[in-house]
Specification:
globular, six-stranded mixed beta sheet, about 675 residues, eight-stranded mixed beta sheet, alpha/beta
Length: about 675
């Protein structure tokens, strides 16, 4: 035993294990390529239901069979939704009939990659379900417990918070609530982690105080493992649970391991079992922040308020580079916001969620604390000091953490210098950029001058919404322009000099209000046609409306100044030149407008044509295309859209040009300077 203890305390052992772990993770996640064993043409699947989620009228099942599948089934009626959970249970064996779908990569740069996310979970397909049938009912006791908990929670008031705090499922939280938590830098309070484990341990130990220490540790360890399984084996809970067990072993056998070494052993165990967790955001946050707290444990001292401030500061600094890489912005106020919310959530809200779940009469009191939480959260999200930081290079991130590890007071100023350098480096870029974003069936383009002196956006896109009944509505909402906004922030762009709305159709202007809300829009340009309800909402934002351009780097001319009642006829046609290049943005202008433009203007040898009306047969006449002779033709169009765009006639007319399509090529980027004209893609 002594010799084993000596080996375990050998410091170089950790260096050897670290090298082995790096090679192990790299080999199993990068060298070996995993592929699905399923036949793409197969349409009947069997498996065990491990997770059930409802998002409005969409039922999402995580099914473990031959391999894991995310199955999506759209409920057809309110009655079916009300009865479906009486039929489907966690742990049931189910037969599904449907169509396999390959997930897409992100088609806007620097956005979340759903395909990669699923791949890291060994999921290669999603399944669009047509019908299902339960084969065998669940007999697993843990699944029975999870199912009973889930079914009870979703029928409670404040079910969104109960589900998050008890089962670690944030599905029911509204986008507004979750986004405000994220904006304030306190979204970690919604993810079950070490803080929640400590509260749970405190409650458990209150009931086990008459037990001897050894028995108490064994019982609590078993309870934590069961809790870990029920909540889906999340990385942060794995870390907290395994650390608790190892900590007790360390104390029992007097191994004298520091918390940092124990944390390292925990990481080794988790990654040895599943090396893909190295890419899990929860894993990264959990281990980096815990390491920072342990590393600065001698600094985190003082009275309660001072200690809380120092803890919040250390957590903020160690999580900052990760937050920047995810959101491309950081909330400087989050240090103080955490000082308020951490004790509020950990000492009041979370314990009360557990107690009121067991004693339902206390649910109104829990609801009262949730109202306070939401109101404070929304208030702080409006007054917080949020700073945009573009995507940081790996070198800058390493330098940032090295400064934190050196712990020299004189070097701490370097942290801010690193961030300032990361923020301003994009301003040294001398290139022009023109982006045609893949936002589905719609248009959105952005032009950026050298040094980001001028930024223009032409159209915003927008999803066409249909009237839904209350039971069909999901708590999660999204805007198609959110991906564009995230990309712009990743490039350090938070200001638009001009937002040009070609016309008021939903697929061109539907997200204008979202753009105005989340970016600093200086001026908006509208067409000369009649004003529809959407355009009136844009005008009501009080942003300056203009038809004049005051630009140095771009020359912008609207070629369609006539008045029309029809939105497409009134569409702005923007002819934009810079350096020696000519770009023509047609909006949804039809053939009759094209003819007038050809009669009035001498256009030829266009470098890039933004094809009108998504390649519809109502635009891009052969006469027009033969006159302007475009070198590249960009068609912004949604995959498998119901309109059949682009039309064969339009494609035939564009046959002599290089056709680029957002449905096939994703976001299309033109990088231009005096000597180069490069084209890049972000393919699905």
């Amino acid at each position: 035993m002594r010799s084993l203890k000596t080996i375990l305390q050998y410091n170089k052992l950790f260096i050897l294990i670290s090298l082995f772990l790096c090679m192990y993770v790299f080999f199993f996640t990068k060298i070996i390529k995993y592929e699905s064993k399923l036949d793409e043409n197969k349409n009947v699947f069997e498996g065990v239901i491990t997770s059930i989620k409802f998002e409005g009228d969409r039922l999402v099942l995580d099914v473990k069979g031959e391999e894991r599948l995310i199955a999506n089934y759209y409920v057809k009626s309110k009655e079916e939704k009300n009865t479906i959970l009486d039929v489907i249970h966690h742990g049931d064996k189910i037969m599904l009939k449907g169509t396999l779908k390959v997930p897409f990569n992100n088609t806007i740069p620097n956005n979340f990659n759903y395909k990669k996310y699923l791949y890291n979970k060994k999921i290669y397909y999603t399944l669009s379900v047509d019908s299902y049938e339960i084969i065998n009912n669940n007999k697993n006791i843990l699944y029975k417990i999870k199912d009973k908990l889930y079914k009870k929670i979703i029928n409670l008031d404040n079910s969104d918070y109960y589900l998050a705090f008890i089962l670690g499922d944030k599905t029911l939280l509204s986008s507004e609530v979750y986004d405000s938590f994220q904006s304030n830098g306190i979204s970690h309070l919604l993810a079950l982690s070490g803080m929640h484990i400590n509260i749970l341990l405190l409650i458990i130990n209150m009931f086990l105080k008459k037990f001897k220490e050894n028995k108490r540790i064994i019982i609590t360890s078993i309870v934590l493992i069961i809790f870990l399984i029920l909540t889906g084996l999340t990385a942060s809970l794995q870390r907290a649970t395994i650390f608790y067990i190892l900590k007790n072993i360390n104390n029992k056998f007097n191994l004298r391991y520091s918390n940092i070494k124990l944390l390292f052993i925990v990481a080794f165990i988790i990654l040895f079992i599943n090396p893909f967790l190295i890419y899990d955001l929860g894993f990264i946050y959990s281990f980096v922040v815990c390491f920072g707290i342990f590393y600065y444990s001698d600094f985190i001292k003082g009275n309660y308020v001072i200690k809380l401030f120092k803890l919040s500061l250390v957590t903020f600094l160690f999580s900052m580079p990760i937050t920047i890489m995810v959101n491309y912005e950081v909330n400087l106020s989050s240090i103080f916001i955490n000082m308020l919310f951490v004790p509020w959530i950990s000492l009041i809200v979370y314990p009360l969620s557990l107690i009121s779940f067991v004693i339902p009469i206390l649910n109104p009191l829990f609801g009262f604390t949730i109202n306070i939480t939401n109101n404070l959260n929304l208030l702080f999200s409006k007054i917080s000091l949020i700073v945009n930081i573009p995507k940081l290079s790996i070198i800058l991130i390493i330098l940032f953490y090295l400064v934190l590890l050196v712990r020299k007071k004189k070097l701490y100023i370097c942290l801010f210098l690193i961030l300032i350098f990361g923020k301003v480096i994009v301003l040294f870029d001398k290139n022009y950029y023109v982006y045609f974003f893949d936002i589905g069936q719609g248009d959105s383009s952005v032009l950026v001058s050298p040094h980001q002196k001028e930024v223009l956006m032409i159209d915003t896109g927008g999803k066409i919404t249909y009237e839904k009944k209350e039971w069909q509505k999901s708590s999660k909402t999204y805007n198609v322009s959110d991906g564009v906004i995230k990309f712009l922030k990743s490039r350090g762009i938070t200001k638009l000099d001009y937002l040009i709305i070609s016309h008021g159709d939903q697929d061109h202007a539907g997200d204008a209000l979202n753009i105005i809300k989340k970016l600093n829009v200086k001026k908006v340009v509208l067409n000369n046609g009649s004003t529809n309800s959407l355009e009136k909402k844009i005008i009501s934002t009080k942003v300056k409306i203009t038809n004049n351009y005051n630009l140095k780097y771009f020359n912008v001319i609207n070629l369609n100044n006539d008045f029309y009642d029809n939105e497409n006829d009134a569409s702005l046609v923007n002819y934009i030149t810079f350096l020696k290049y000519k770009f023509l943005f047609m909006g949804d202008a039809p053939k009759n407008v094209e003819e007038k433009i050809i009669e009035k203007y001498n256009l030829f040898n266009i470098d890039v044509l933004k094809v009108g009306h998504h390649g519809s047969k109502t635009s891009s006449s052969k006469y027009f295309i033969d006159k302007i002779i475009p070198k590249y033709s960009v068609i912004s169009v949604g995959r498998n859209n119901r309109y059949g765009h682009p039309h064969e006639e339009a494609l035939s007319n564009l046959i002599n040009t290089k056709i680029l399509r957002t449905d096939n090529d994703g976001t299309i980027t033109f990088k231009i300077n005096k000597n180069k004209f490069d084209i890049g893609f972000c393919k699905p």
